[in-house]
Automatic annotation (TrEMBL):
Residues 27-298 form the ABC transmembrane type-1 domain. PROSITE patterns: ABC_TM1F, ABC_TRANSPORTER_1, ABC_TRANSPORTER_2. Keywords: ATP-binding, Cell membrane, Membrane, Nucleotide-binding, Transmembrane, Transmembrane helix, Transport. The chain crosses the membrane at residues 26-52, 58-80, 137-154, 160-180, 240-263, 269-290. It holds the Pfam family ABC_tran. Its main location: membrane. This is ABC transporter ATP-binding protein. It is found in: Cell membrane.
């Protein structure tokens, strides 16, 4: 993916609402940084006068402007970092909010590593662009202009010769080096990725590779990738590092001071000192900014990934509320495709209240996708899901959450206490209510018991305890008892059946246990989609 330009990133609708609240802090930071640079230059000029006149007045003025420059620089840094922290927090909230509002199949394209990178690494990569780049650009514009003015004051037109090495090196460092770096950076990173992938393949298959010898299989791939990586690194050093080192040497005192001394050697000591001070002050901001341009490249790439994620389409939500009457729940002509593969077509079913509906079918026929659609977390290609004859996507998000409890397969119980996990779903439940629910599902654990010590079956019992406390009228469960034995399954099914019947709830449950089919009158079976076939309803 080609990174977006800085102007595109700054003006993108995804970033504009986040940047707007910190704009004032950034502007003040930029102005403070510029004035800090100017104050420091004035302090150097006062130092020149101090050497020339050796007056305590110039000593005080030198100290005053150095202190003023330090204070303004500190204010600039504090405002910039404060704005960056605010920006990072709001951006992370925007990313989390987006993850909660995009279709499930879209979110599934991002694995845990990709999501962690978006929320942490990519947001951190924007640190330099937000906290440092604006101020350094302002210093780059202001300080060299003032420095050049002082040099022309001392040397006249000869100042051009003093400025020439720094200008040439600055242009090279600010333009040519980043260009070469960006041109070769993608290939270098891809080579590094290939080497890591090859190493991982070898590590996973080390026992197999030992059978065939070290020159076979993944080990040979790793060797080739590592050789390619070393070649690319050597090429990068030749193209980027050596020229950059040459540019830095020009930016340093050697070349600039030599020319400054040759031109200004006949001046008095104070003037010579001023020429040396201001000749280096011209290029120092360029050197600082040049070191940061690599961060700009990585920041643009990170920002592009963030913008791509934030631009994903949201799930549709309406504003309608449900009337306070007995709920009905049905699907009508529901069709769904995933990546041009038809999952199910023209599906119709009425889910009865006060009963458990079991959802069966072979793996891959779309049972979990159907539950996601019923929960409003996936969008069908056609057809509707109706609650009380109101299409589910016409309801507000709050209304959907109020009436629907959806717990997907392998629900990730957070690494905390049992109490914390239960309060995620039932915030108002008391400890007594929580303990009663745990007792009903035969999970005899303290509320402070850490959930990472629970077995798979105990975690499923915890989820069922949450179901017993939920006020939602529609409950969607994806294989909620797959880790339980037959006796426990039958006991908990009887408990759920009585709970659903007593509270007139609608419970839809996926299962691969066909022995349960005769136990329930409401059964929806999904078969592999065929153009002439239909899904069976019982």
């Amino acid at each position: 993916m080609q990174p977006f330009s800085l102007s595109t990133i700054i003006n993108h609708p995804c970033f504009t609402p986040i940047l707007l609240p910190i704009r004032q802090k950034i502007i003040i930071s930029i102005i403070s940084a510029a004035f800090a640079g100017v104050a420091t230059l004035i302090a150097y000029q006062c130092l020149v006068y101090l050497v020339a006149e050796q007056s305590v007045i110039w000593l005080y003025r030198t100290m005053l402007f150095f202190i003023l420059g330090a204070i303004l620089g500190g204010i600039s840094l504090w405002l910039a970092h404060n704005a960056e922290n605010q920006f990072a927090k709001q951006l992370q909230l925007a990313l989390i909010n987006k993850a909660l509002h995009i279709p499930k199949h879209t979110l599934s394209k991002y694995n845990n590593h990709s999501l962690r990178r978006l929320l942490s690494e990519d947001v951190s990569e924007l640190h330099y662009m937000v906290a440092h780049l604006p101020a350094e650009l302002s210093v780059l514009c202001v300080v060299p202009i003032f420095s050049a003015g002082f040099l022309f004051y001392y040397l006249g037109a000869k100042a051009i010769w003093v400025l020439l090495p720094g200008i040439m090196a600055s242009l090279y460092y600010l333009w040519m080096v980043p260009y070469i770096n960006q041109r070769d950076g993608v290939g270098r990173m891809q080579t590094m990725k290939n080497m890591i992938d090859a190493l991982n393949d070898y590590t996973r298959g080390v026992s197999i590779n030992r059978i065939f010898g070290q020159d076979k299989g993944a080990l040979e791939n790793y060797r080739q990738s590592s050789d390619n990586f070393l070649y690319q690194m050597n090429l990068w050093i030749k193209k980027v590092v050596l020229p950059a080192s040459f540019a830095v040497s020009l930016l340093q005192a050697v070349a600039t001071f030599t020319i400054a001394y040759i031109i200004a050697k006949n001046l008095d000591m104070a003037s010579l000192l001023g020429v040396i001070f201001f000749s280096l002050a011209v290029v120092t901001p360029a050197l600082r900014l040049g070191h940061g341009l690599d961060y700009v490249i990585t920041g643009r790439t990170a920002a592009s990934r963030i913008i791509t994620f934030l631009s994903l389409p949201n799930l549709p939500y309406g504003e309608q509320l449900l009337p306070k009457v007995s709920l009905s729940f049905n699907i009508k002509n529901l069709s769904f495709s995933l990546e041009n593969r038809k999952i199910f077509h023209q599906l119709n079913y009425e889910f009865p209240r006060g009963e458990i509906t079991i959802l069966t079918g072979q793996s891959g026929v779309g049972k979990s996708s159907l539950l996601s659609i019923l929960a409003g977390q996936e969008v069908p290609n056609s057809g509707e899901v109706y609650i009380n004859k109101v299409a589910i996507y016409e309801l507000s998000q709050e209304e959907q959450k109020k009436h629907i409890l959806f717990i997907p397969q392998h629900h990730a119980v957070i690494a905390s206490s049992i109490r914390d996990n239960m309060h995620l779903f039932v915030q108002t439940a008391t400890d007594i209510q929580l303990l009663n629910a745990l007792q009903k599902v035969h999970l005899n654990k303290d509320l402070n018991f850490p959930t990472h010590q629970l077995s798979g079956g105990e975690k499923q019992r915890l989820i069922l305890a949450i179901v017993l406390l939920s006020t939602a009228q529609i409950i969607l469960l994806d294989e909620p008892m797959s880790a339980l034995d037959r006796q426990a399954t039958n006991e908990l099914l009887a408990l759920l059946e009585n709970f659903v019947k007593q509270h007139k709830k609608i419970l839809i449950m996926i299962t691969h246990d066909h022995s349960l089919i005769p136990k329930f009158s409401s059964h929806l079976h999904l078969s592999s989609y065929q153009s002439e076939g239909e899904n069976s309803h019982e």
